[in-house]
Amino acid sequence: MQTADKFRRFELGADSDVSVSFEFFPPKSEKMEASLWSAVQRLEPLAPSFVSVTYGAGGSTRERTHRTVKRLVDETGLAPAAHLTCVGSSRDEVDAIVRDYHDIGVRHIVALRGDPLEGLGARYTPQPDGYAYASDLVEGIRRIADFEVSVSAYPELHPESADWTVEIDNLKRKVDAGATRAITQYFFENDMFETFMEKVRAAGIDIPIVPGILPIVNFEQTMVFSAKCGTSIPHWLARRFAGLDKDVETRKLVASAVACEQVLDLVDRGVSDFHFYTMNRADLTYAICHMLGLRPAPEEKQAA
Ligand code: FAD
């Protein structure tokens, strides 16, 4: 690390130029609802640029996403971004959801294709009367109103993309359709992200590409999910969590150290925006944001 870079870390203070966003999932029970709202309350003072709520194709999940987004609008000063997918709905149904969001004051949508109803890994077939891919959905949303539209990006390739040309062409299609930001799938190797960014910029894609950071709450589950979504688990990462299956406290400290190391290294590489997959928990994300120099905003600023 060069001296100037080393100092950059120490400059991360009250006036940090780092910007963060937080992702939540809609709760399934009253207990989960309570823990989500306590996480939201803990993280809100860090003044994220937006908070997003994930979306599932089933009817009840859809409802829960809408309810969570509405509650964020009604009860917080946060800017919510509603995730939306193409799966299981006609274009008319999706358009109606988009209009509903606009009516309640939402101005940011995370537009995704989504995974098949049968689950991650099953073969995807577009619904005949639906939006087929995320790029089509972005175009549809932009036709309805002037939303901010975020899309996905994959530093390790989407599992269905045959090669990098296919991957980058798809991202470019989404940008040409009107996407204003991309959020990446989580990853653990920053070199891979940097190589990906070189490909993205070389293709003339100039929207912000925000790294998705996953603080690891449960390593076993992370391994299972990563195998399905195409994120590699480096050997060094597995070694750090080895032997901690039953040691919750140490696991949490290690998870925080690992994610801090990752984000601070990304700062050294010039990254200033981060999207956190919070898993509806505040503790790890709050600690990592603190290390990034973020401090609770004064109360009058939060109320504004
Ligand atoms: P797309 O960008 O449409 O691409 C998917 C694949 O299809 C790629 O391999 C692409 O190359 C290929 N493709 C694109 N266009 C075409 C075409 N015209 N013909 C043939 N192939 C094509 N899932 C949820 O269900 N709910 C969520 O809330 C959610 N949130 C997410 C948030 C982020 C930040 C990320 C990274 C992922 C999220 N996902 C979510 C997962 C996502 O839905 C899956 O990864 C899904 O498999 C792909 O969605 P996408 O928007 O990336 O698809």
Walk me through the topology.
Blueprint: H1 3-11, E1 19-24, H2 30-43, E2 50-53, H3 59-75, E3 80-85, H4 91-103, E4 108-112, H5 134-144, E5 148-153, H6 164-176, E6 181-184, H7 190-202, E7 209-210, E8 212-213, H8 219-229, H9 235-241, H10 248-268, E9 273-277, H11 283-291, H12 299-303
Parallel strand pairs: 1-2, 1-9, 2-3, 3-4, 4-5, 5-6, 6-7, 8-9
Helix pairs in contact: 5-6, 10-11
The structure holds flavin-adenine dinucleotide.
Textual characterization of the structure:
- The protein has 304 residues and is α/β, with parallel strands linked by helices.
- The protein has a single domain, classed as TIM Barrel, CATH 3.20.20.220.
- The protein has helices spanning 3-11, 30-43, 59-75, 91-103, 134-144, 164-176, 190-202, 219-229, 235-241, 248-268, 283-291, 299-303; strands at residues 19-24, 50-53, 80-85, 108-112, 148-153, 181-184, 209-210, 212-213, 273-277.
- The protein has a 9-stranded parallel sheet with strand order 7-6-5-4-3-2-1-9-8, with helices on one face.
- Helix 5 packs parallel to helix 6 (164-176) and helix 10 (248-268) packs parallel to helix 11.
- The longest helix has 21 residues, at 248-268.
- The chain binds flavin-adenine dinucleotide.
- Flavin-adenine dinucleotide is lined by residues 54-56, 83, 85, 110, 112-115, 133-135, 152, 158, 160-161, 166-167, 170, 183, 185, 212.
Report the principal-axis shape: globular
* Oligomer description: single chain
E-strand count: 9
Domain module count: 1
Enumerate how many helices there are, as a single number.
Answer: 12
Q: Which structural class matches the secondary elements?
A: alpha/beta
Cα end-to-end separation: 40 Å
CATH class division: Alpha Beta
Low-confidence stretches: none
As laid out across the biggest beta sheet, the strand order is: 7-6-5-4-3-2-1-9-8
Main beta sheet strand tally, sense and closure? 9 strands, parallel
